[in-house]
Amino acid sequence: MAIAFVGPLSRYFASSEDEALRLRAGVLAWCDDLRASVADKVREQLHWDEAAPLACATDFGDSGFMALRLLAFYADRSELEWPDTVPPLLELDPEWRAAAEAKFDKSRYGHLLACQVWLPGDFPVTLRVPMPDGSTAEIGALQVLANQLRWLNQRTFQADADEVAAWAELPAVAGGELVTAARRGYAVLSAAVEVALRQQLPLLVRLA
């Protein structure tokens, strides 16, 4: 199961409004450290409002996010046969596991496949960094993620906006049919990206 969250990082890591306020100073210090560690062209893009009131979360279902990433991986590898169902873990797919070890460096969907955190910006590289809570994450750029989702739709679903919006109600059960679950995942992530770009706020996927 996974949740798409759009909002300030302090709200993502907090369990209440009061806790978010207490965490904000630490998150802002983390942002300063992150900007200091990257190239100038990336640094100037990494700005958002940690005091923003928006915080929204949307459920991918049990397998929507996993299915979307697996479908994108196979859509980029025409020599491979697509699986029919979503595996319990992506790491159980040997082709996926081999590509993940190389950080999907040869994929046109690298920011979708490698990341679970996307920050405002349009930088081509992904960044592996420690997060404010001490975990480590691969960070991508929101605009690049939006582009990669658009390319994926053009190469696979070829769906219009109304059709994509309707997919948010599709089932995405554990071990279910891959394409159906991937459509649910695509609808949820596309909607979250749209909000994050419009508000210029981080987007994170929390795996349960």
Summed up, the helix count is 9
Q: Got a strand count?
A: 6
Order of helices and strands: EHHHEHHHEEEHHHE
Name the shape in a single word. globular
Give the distance, in angstroms, between the N- and C-terminal Cα atoms.
5 Å
Gist of the model:
With 208 residues, this protein is of the alpha+beta class. The protein has helices at 9-13, 17-36, 40-43, 64-75, 94-101, 110-114, 142-155, 161-166, 178-199; strands at 2-6, 56-59, 117-119, 127-130, 136-141, 203-207. It contains 9 helices and 6 strands; from the N terminus they run E-H-H-H-E-H-H-H-E-E-E-H-H-H-E.
What's the layout of helices and strands?
Layout: E1 2-6, H1 9-13, H2 17-36, H3 40-43, E2 56-59, H4 64-75, H5 94-101, H6 110-114, E3 117-119, E4 127-130, E5 136-141, H7 142-155, H8 161-166, H9 178-199, E6 203-207
Parallel strand pairs: 3-5
Antiparallel strand pairs: 1-2, 1-6, 3-6, 4-5
Helix pairs in contact: 4-9, 7-9
Characterization of this structure:
The structure is a single chain. The protein is an alpha+beta fold and 208 residues long. The protein has one domain. It contains nine helices and six strands, in the order βαααβαααβββαααβ. A six-stranded mixed sheet has the order 2-1-6-3-5-4. A hairpin with a 5-residue loop joins strand 4 and strand 5 (136-141). Helix 4 (64-75) crosses helix 9 (178-199) and helix 7 (142-155) packs antiparallel against helix 9 (178-199). The longest helix is centred in the last third of the chain and has 22 residues, at 178-199. The N and C termini lie close together (5 Å).
